[in-house]
Design a protein that fits this description.
Shape: globular
Number of domains: 3
Strand content: 25-35%
Distance between the termini: 35 Å
Helix content: 40-55%
Oligomer: single chain
Largest sheet: 5 strands, antiparallel
Structural class: alpha+beta
């Protein structure tokens, strides 16, 4: 058995061999060189363009081409950075004694699970991960989540199944990954109202995980209302989710989405972006706003307002982003709203009343809180819904140990 465990560790070391790491770095260097060549060619072309006697139409066309090439250079540089980070990502295998390995293997056999390899891995930020190669020796149904509960007891650490694991343990050998459970859990609530003259809302939103223990909320308000506004905000929300899940940095993702809106040409495509990224291990959250309405953090009866004074996406070649970080505590709430909420409040006692309303509410369910804010806003505009209105509420609580 001792020989089998050691050979398993050797197999672990070959998962990311030095050859593969160097190959990734070589690809990254090649992409950077390609970006530099684009940049050098563009600088030379701009110099010739300044010296040439060109008419206004040709100059505008050349200027737009130059801006598109600059964006391509930035995209190539971002791809190279992602590949470099992947190649240099640090993982450390934590040794496991033979006796402990036998205990875990025996416990899994008790539920008809055969264990081939097991590794304790410490990632670059110090959190533990567990990798198991196993199979189900019987036809009984055992889920990856149930195995995670068993491992939590055996290893004396709270583990949850990774997102990309299969749901059930099959008859073939398969590798499953488990990670430390986050300290906090969340509940979300949403309330929406469509402009009274339209069929669909120009507001769109999404909640998604960009990794274990990270929740991201995105809210976008398309300019105007109806199908056009809905299409624009849908594109912002969907692209933001895809880019962040693919590993792009937030700033680059926003830049690419802004370029996609600008590509509409004569058709004006303008949308706000309101994003909140929440780390469920530390309780840290980060707001990124581009032309969006204020957001709020409720802590008992105290309310922190997060605002930005920039313009929406789709106006300038380089979007103006404002980022704000906050540390959350057990029982806090995050409230994100679209412009329609603020516009409705301005018809009544004013939008400055919203923080007071949020602070005074004793509602604990995020869905009920979202509905209360929406209904209050509609009342302030005398029952009229002059613009699309959306309220997102996220409640965060510490898990019991």
């Amino acid at each position: 058995m001792k020989k089998q465990i050691l050979s398993g560790r050797e197999e672990f070391n070959s998962i990311l061999p030095e050859y593969g790491r160097r190959k990734l770095l070589t690809y990254a260097d090649s992409i950077r060189e390609l970006a530099d060549s684009f940049k050098e060619t563009e600088n030379n072309r701009e110099h010739l363009l300044e010296e040439a006697d060109t008419d206004r139409r040709d100059y505008i066309w050349q200027k737009r081409l130059s801006e598109n090439k600059e964006l391509m250079v930035e995209h190539l540089q971002e791809m190279a950075q992602i590949m470099t980070q992947l190649a240099e990502e640090a993982r450390k295998c934590v040794p496991m004694g033979e006796r402990r390995f036998k205990q875990i293997s025996h416990a899994l056999r008790e539920v008809d699970i055969q264990l081939k390899n097991l590794y304790l891995i410490e990632n670059e930020i110090g959190r533990m991960e567990v990798s198991l190669t196993m199979r189900n020796a019987r036809k009984n149904t055992l889920s990856a989540e149930e195995i995670g509960d068993l491992l939590s007891v055996l290893l004396n650490m709270r583990l949850v199944s990774a997102q990309d694991n299969a749901i059930f343990i099959g008859a073939d050998w398969q590798t499953f990954y488990y990670v430390e459970e986050a300290r906090y859990h969340v509940l979300t609530g949403v309330a929406k109202a469509v402009k009274e003259t339209e069929r669909v809302s120009g507001d769109n939103y999404v909640f998604f995980e960009t990794g274990t223990g990270n929740l991201t909320a995105v809210l976008s308000d398309g300019m105007g209302s109806g199908d056009k506004a809905c299409n624009d905000s849908t594109m912002v929300v969907e692209l933001m989710q895809k880019f962040l899940e693919a590993g792009f940095q937030m700033e680059m993702a926003i830049q690419m989405i802004n370029s996609a809106l600008l590509a509409g040409g004569e058709n004006t495509n303008i949308s706000t972006l309101d994003l909140c990224s929440l780390d469920l291990y530390s309780g840290e959250c980060r707001f990124v706003k581009v032309g969006s309405a204020s957001s709020f953090i409720k802590r008992q009866h105290l309310v922190d307002r997060i605002s930005a004074g920039n313009l929406p996406l789709g106006i300038f070649q380089k979007p103006d982003m404002e980022a704000v970080g906050r540390a959350l505590m057990d029982g806090d709430y995050i409230i994100m709203v679209s412009d329609g909420i603020m516009d409705a409040l301005s018809q009544g006692i004013g939008e400055d009343m919203l923080p007071e309303l949020i602070g005074n509410t004793n509602l604990e369910n995020p869905g009920e809180m979202a509905n209360a804010i929406l209904n209050f806003s509609i009342q302030q505009s005398r029952g009229r819904i002059r613009d699309d209105m959306t309220v997102l509420v996220i409640g965060i609580w510490k898990k019991e140990q």
